[in-house]
Design brief:
The protein is of the alpha/beta class. The chain contains 24 helices and 23 strands. It starts with 20 loop residues before the first helix and ends with a helix.
């Protein structure tokens, strides 16, 4: 079952070499072979199939009229613009161009009869169109809605439509789904769906097309999600074929000793997740598990149990965190929990002195260091592990694919003809909504800590305008007098990290002046590591009352006595980041407060974000709303890659189709492997590796 054509080269057909300017523009859109053009579907449609009398047009809706130009002139007030008035038997309409060329002036010369299409607006002098499309009146009207495609600079819609129509003639549109799958899910045949979407007839509901509710769109969304599911299932199967050392532990001696030594009781959710990870580590293929839990749910102790099991199997463990503050937080906790059990914990970051770094690297290479905690310094060429069996990545989405692979490769070794690969546990405090877990993380095993440890106080969230700054300062003074500590988080400055740093320095100076007698500290990403460490140590020890900070404290800071956080210009932060920051308080038994201080007026998006923070503290609900607002690309931190995760389906609204695609993917792989291969060839075309990363 072929899905691409092989005839003589033409736009919409296989293009090799640099080709013409048109072909280079098409290649820029990823349009090379006929199948690429076939699935390059319209963004929207224009109805050019009929003419509307001018008296029947109304504001807010597109319209197409035919009329005579009765006035045309270039006006200079309030700015230079081309203005024309057209008239038919029912009324007149004003046309306006704020940017125009001489040939446009000729198109609307007085006395010419023109066909005009655009969105109608309510102007001061009646209805008008701004920058309408002008063609010659009297030509034959199209018999179908006109598709408008995603394009690139210099590539006209007309050229793109022509190339796509050529591809529709040449491409193999045979169905990649067996009839029984199509019938079960009531799906339109592929060729029919494609032709409907490229050339919809005027009787098709315009809203169904635009809102992607038409059965043709359902088929396309199903196909896209199915291809994704087949690809992820293949990635999962490939991982199962890899080999890893089974880390069964010394009959649970170290994990049992760790549990007995803890000054607190694990939650049922933590115990469940520890058991899931333990079972994975006992397998002879590499674990690839994502551990997700809300802020403060106790992921670090779960990682400690995984490390204890690996170490009792004579393997080394590496824990890599994205920031030194977070790495240090893990290091301190793990030392306290594991060193009394006889486990040697090493520390490796870029800020270590030459002597300390050399000693750490030697301990890692000799195997003396059983557990190594650090930052990206762990993946330096000089770092060699003796026997790395388990890799733990915290806030894994903050690392690039290459960095994650580099750490895993530190533990690769050959056993006969097979490569032995370390087990991998990824941790994230950004809960992943169910539909996202079902789609983009379908190749991973996912564990969820869905309850907080007892004794954690809920955080009260308050929205306060910065016009009430004096009240906020009074609240800080009152909290400190009661013996509590507070954070003051400085706003994000998107244009410049240096500006954000300056903001933090200035804020620290202002607050130190306004709150005389209070011990005000400052921490930001540019501080030398030793100084940063000292500030955090002083804050933990209670030697600092108010800590002014940038988002460097977003993760990993655990000070139970800190019960107040002020986030200045909260409207500039993302929803997930606000939730992470809020999680720095409420770690003790006292009532904690997070003040979101904003500057009016708020944009609609900022208002939605702040409302979400005020209404819920549930990380999964926050994540769902964040996904809704930002889309999967930005949510997962891959928007900058230039790859679109899903072009047609929506994670937010197409959960049911995703579930059906998941079912169908299993059946296609098991019963119809040929169809599965053809389906991937049509829809993925080189994107599998991107999804697997």
């Amino acid at each position: 079952m072929a899905v691409s054509g092989t005839k003589a080269r033409a736009p919409g057909q296989a293009a090799t070499g640099p080709g013409s300017l048109l072909e280079r523009k098409l290649l820029h859109l990823g349009l090379r072979d006929p199948v690429d053009f076939v699935v390059h579907l319209p963004l929207r449609y224009e109805d050019e199939t009929h003419i509307t009398p001018i008296m029947s047009v109304y504001p807010g809706a597109p319209a197409q009229v035919e009329a005579e130009v009765i006035r045309s002139e270039v006006q200079f007030r309030p700015r230079r613009q081309l203005v024309a008035v057209v008239e038919d038997d029912t009324g007149s309409l004003l046309l306006r161009w704020l940017n125009f060329y001489p040939n446009q002036q000729k198109q609307v010369a007085v006395g010419k009869r023109v066909r005009v299409r655009g969105e109608v607006r309510a102007g001061f002098g009646g209805h008008e169109m701004v920058h309408p499309k002008i063609t010659v009146a009297g030509t034959a009207l199209p018999q179908a809605l006109t598709p408008v495609y995603p394009t690139t600079d210099g590539l006209s819609q007309a050229s793109l439509r022509k190339a796509i129509d050529q591809a529709l003639v040449r491409a193999d549109l045979s169905d990649t789904l067996p009839p029984e799958i199509r019938d079960r899910y009531k799906l339109m045949p592929f060729d029919q769906a494609i032709r409907v979407l490229h050339h919809p007839s005027p009787d098709i509901s315009y809203s169904d097309l635009i809102e992607r509710g038409h059965p043709a769109w359902t088929r396309i969304k199903f196909d896209e999600l199915l291809a994704q599911q087949i690809s992820l299932a293949a990635a999962r199967a490939a991982r199962r074929r890899q080999r890893a050392r089974a880390l069964e532990g010394d009959h649970g001696r170290l994990p049992d000793a760790l549990r007995a030594s803890l000054p607190f009781t694990l939650t049922a959710a933590q115990e469940r997740v520890i058991a899931e990870i333990s079972s994975d580590l006992s397998c002879s293929f590499p674990m690839h598990r994502l551990l997700q839990g809300d802020v403060g749910s106790g992921k670090t102790i779960v990682a400690a149990f995984a490390a204890a099991q690996a170490i009792s199997s004579q393997s080394q463990v590496a824990i890599m965190a994205p920031t030194e503050i977070l790495a240090e937080q893990h290091f301190q906790k793990l030392v306290a929990w594991l060193e009394p059990l006889g486990i040697t914990v090493a520390w490796l970051t870029g800020s270590l002195s030459s002597k300390a770094r050399k000693a750490a690297i030697e301990a890692i290479e000799s195997g003396q260091a059983q557990l190594v905690v650090g930052t990206q310094a762990l993946i330096q060429d000089k770092v060699n592990f003796s026997n790395l069996g388990l890799v733990i990545l915290d806030e894994q989405h903050r690392f690039g694919v290459g960095q994650r692979l580099d750490l895993s490769r530190k533990g690769e070794e050959s056993e006969g003809s097979l490569a032995m690969i370390p087990h991998q546990l990824s941790m994230s405090a950004t809960p992943i909504p169910r539909t996202l877990a079902m789609t983009f993380f379908a190749d991973l095993d996912v564990s969820v800590i869905d309850e907080l440890p007892p004794g954690r106080s809920p955080v009260l969230t308050k929205l306060v305008s910065d016009a009430r700054r004096d009240e906020v300062l009074s609240h800080v003074v009152a909290e400190v007098r009661r013996g509590s500590q507070a954070y003051w988080v400085c706003p994000l400055v998107e244009e410049s990290e240096a500006l954000q740093l300056q903001t933090a320095v200035d804020t620290h100076a202002r607050l130190a002046l306004a709150l005389s007698g209070m011990r005000v500290g400052l921490v930001h990403g540019r501080l030398p590591a030793a100084e940063k460490q000292q500030v955090m140590q002083d804050f933990r020890a209670g030697a600092i009352d108010l800590l002014v900070a940038t988002t460097v404290i977003e993760v990993g800071v655990d000070v139970p006595n800190a019960s107040l956080m002020i986030i200045e210009h909260a409207e500039r932060f993302g929803l997930a980041q606000l939730h992470q920051l809020r999680g720095r308080v409420g770690r003790g038994s006292q009532q904690s407060v997070c003040v979101l201080m904003y500057q009016s007026p708020l944009s609609a998006v900022a208002r939605q974000r702040l409302r979400a923070m005020y209404e819920t503290a549930d990380g999964f609900e926050i994540a769902r709303r964040d996904l809704e607002q930002r889309g999967p690309g930005e949510f997962l931190g891959v928007r900058q890659s230039g790859q679109e995760l899903l072009r047609f389906a929506s994670i937010d609204t197409d959960a049911m189709i995703a579930e059906q695609a998941q079912e169908a993917a299993r059946e296609l792989r098991d019963r119809f492997p040929g169809h599965a291969r053809c389906h991937l060839e049509r829809w993925m075309r080189g994107k599998q590796d991107f999804l697997r990363s």
